[in-house]
Specification:
mainly alpha
Length: 288
C-alpha cells in the first residue's frame, strides 16, 4: 500500500505541475491542494492491485489510477462546498473552498474532472483501451453513477429511506467509482476475460457498499481528529445512514458480511488475488 500510495502521489504531482505559462497559478495551486493530500488512495490502490494481478503495464496503470483519483478529488471539493454538504475539514485540513474561495473551488472541480479524461488519452494506453476506459469512467461519474447518487443523497436529507433505497443510493454515490477503479485496472491488462471482469465487478460492488457502511459507522464512533473531517456531520445534516437504519452493531456486521462476499468472488479467480483480498479487509478495518 505504501509503495503504491507513494507512486500515485508522484504521478499526480507530475501531472499537476504548473508548467503552462497561460494557466492560472492560483487555480493550479488549488488543484494541487485538493489532490495532493493525505488521502487513503483506495481507488488508485484498487487500480494498481487489479492491474498487477492481471499483468498490466505500469505506465497504463499510472494513467488509470491518476484519472480515478482526479475524479474522486473533484467530487470531494464540490461535495464540501456550502451548496452541498458545507464542510470545513477534509483530510485534516481546511476544505478547498475555505483555503481558497468558493469560485476557485468550483473551478478546481471542473478542471480536475476534465484533466482526468485527458489523462486517459495517455500514450501508454492503446486506442481501444482509451475508448473503453473513458466510457467506463464517464458512466461511473455521471448521472447514472456518482453524480446521480449525490443528487439522491441531497434529496434524501430529512427523509426516511428503507434499506433497499439506501443501498441503491450508495451503490451510485460511492460504489460506482470504486467499481470503475477495479474495471480500469482490469482494462489496462492484456486480454482480460469477460468472466474475470464479471467476478472482479462483483467483488468491487461488495467492497464499494462496505466502504460506505464503514464510513457511516466511523461517523458515529470516531472523532474529528482521527477522521480528518467533522465527526457526526451526517447526523447533523439528518442524512439517512446505515447505523441510523440498522443500528450500529448490525451496520458493522453488514460491512463484514459484504467483505466476506467479496472474498468469495476472488476465490474463484485463477490468479493470485492476495493484494485485492487485503484491500477488501482494509475497507472495514480502517479507522478513517
Amino acid at each position: 500500500m505504501q509503495a503504491h500510495q507513494s507512486q500515485i502521489e508522484f504521478v499526480l504531482a507530475k501531472r499537476l505541475a504548473a508548467n503552462n505559462q497561460h494557466s492560472s497559478d492560483r487555480l493550479i495551486e488549488a488543484m494541487r491542494y485538493a489532490t495532493l493530500s493525505n488521502g487513503k488512495r483506495l481507488r488508485a490502490l484498487l487500480v494498481y492491485a487489479t492491474g498487477e494481478t492481471l499483468g498490466a503495464d505500469k505506465a497504463a496503470l499510472n494513467a488509470a489510477a491518476s484519472a480515478v483519483e482526479m475524479i474522486h478529488a473533484y467530487s470531494l471539493v464540490h461535495d464540501d462546498m456550502p451548496i452541498m454538504d458545507d464542510d470545513d475539514l477534509r483530510r485534516g485540513r481546511p476544505t478547498c473552498h475555505k483555503a481558497f474561495d468558493e469560485a476557485t473551488a468550483l473551478l478546481v472541480g471542473d478542471a480536475l474532472q476534465t484533466l482526468a479524461f485527458e489523462t486517459l488519452c495517455d500514450d501508454a494506453l492503446t486506442p481501444q483501451q482509451q475508448s473503453k476506459m473513458v466510457k467506463r469512467l464517464a458512466q461511473a461519474s455521471g448521472a447514472y453513477g456518482m453524480a446521480g447518487g449525490q443528487a439522491i443523497d441531497l434529496e434524501s436529507v430529512g427523509k426516511k429511506l428503507d434499506i433497499n433505497a439506501l443501498q441503491a443510493m450508495h451503490k451510485l454515490k460511492t460504489g460506482a467509482l470504486i467499481r470503475a477503479s477495479v474495471a480500469l485496472g482490469a482494462l489496462a491488462a492484456p486480454n482480460c476475460k469477460e468472466e474475470t471482469l464479471a467476478r472482479l465487478d462483483r467483488y468491487a460492488d461488495c467492497i464499494g457498499l462496505a466502504f460506505q457502511v464503514q464510513d457511516d459507522v466511523l461517523d458515529v464512533i470516531a472523532d474529528t481528529e482521527t477522521l480528518g473531517k467533522t465527526q457526526g456531520a451526517d447526523i447533523a445534516l439528518n442524512k439517512p445512514t446505515y447505523p441510523a437504519l440498522l443500528g450500529l452493531e448490525k451496520a458493522q456486521q453488514k460491512a463484514v458480511a459484504l467483505i466476506e462476499k467479496a472474498l468469495g468472488q476472488l476465490a474463484e479467480l485463477p490468479c493470485n488475488t492476495e493484494v485485492l483480498a487485503a484491500l477488501a479487509q482494509f475497507v472495514v478495518k480502517r479507522s478513517h
